[in-house]
Amino acid sequence: AERLANKVILITGASAGIGQATALEYCAASNGNVKLILLARRLEKLEEIATELKKQYPNVKVHYEKLDVCDYDKVEPFLNNLPEEFKSIDILVNNAGKALGVDKVGDIAQEDVEGMFATNVLAMINFTQKVLPIFKKKNSGDIVQLGSMAGRYSYTGGSVYCATKHSLRAFSDSLRMELIDTNIRVIEIAPGNVETEFSMIRYKGNSAAAGKVYENTTPLYADDIAEIIVYATSRKQNTVLAQALVFPSCQASPFHLHRG
Ligand code: 8X3
């Protein structure tokens, strides 16, 4: 809790799932002694989340804004226009991401290809590049990268999604090397099955197909990953949790899932 005190934490994709759970977990771990910047496309959701957090943790400071991470040109003005007390970001959680469809190569809509690369790769790189000068100036800061087991394994029907998460991993590894002479940490968390809106989005609202992903399993939940994000970013400065592959206990790869 001490180590998190007063930290400014920026979370993309904060309106649901792992992003939302991470906001709550930072409050829980610090007893509300953090400053959260919450970004997403759905402003009403952020509003609700901010209200709820403040109810539970009266001390917490929350700044939320509607921002589509794919509006690349809006990120710099957004950072420059942050209220003074939120300007010195300490932790960037690059959480916004998605899978679109399970089509095979040859059948994948260009829109889906671009949608996944735009959010998972281009927006993540853009955000990292725009926030990095803030970290470099004070020689500290954490960059949390939401990877996936899809960045470790590739599977059929996931060519583009897997390519985006492999990209995230490669980018993160290069960045960690480039920052070797700084105190800036690059932390990649790579979950397996987590039950969030993820599958509903991947299956484009087909709830039967989305439900099948988790059927007869106990998957991870958003707060399980949030705990790990908070754990990783509250280690001593000398400790970098560089990569964490995280499965529910019934899973060991995309191809090893026990349904019981
Ligand atoms: C989420 C897990 O199954 O799509 O990143 O690879 S999976």
UniProtKB/TrEMBL annotation:
SUPFAM superfamilies: NAD(P)-binding Rossmann-fold domains. Belongs to the short-chain dehydrogenases/reductases (SDR) family. Keywords: NADP, Oxidoreductase. Gene3D superfamilies: NAD(P)-binding Rossmann-like Domain (3.40.50.720). PROSITE patterns: ADH_SHORT (PS00061). The lineage of its organism: Eukaryota, Fungi, Dikarya, Ascomycota, Saccharomycotina. It comes from Hanseniaspora guilliermondii. This is Probable oxidoreductase. The keyword Ribonucleoprotein does not apply. Pfam families: adh_short. PANTHER family: ALCOHOL DEHYDROGENASE. GO terms for molecular function: carbonyl reductase (NADPH) activity; diacetyl reductase ((S)-acetoin forming) (NAD+) activity; serine 3-dehydrogenase activity. One of its GO terms (biological process) is acetoin metabolic process. The keyword Oxidoreductase applies.
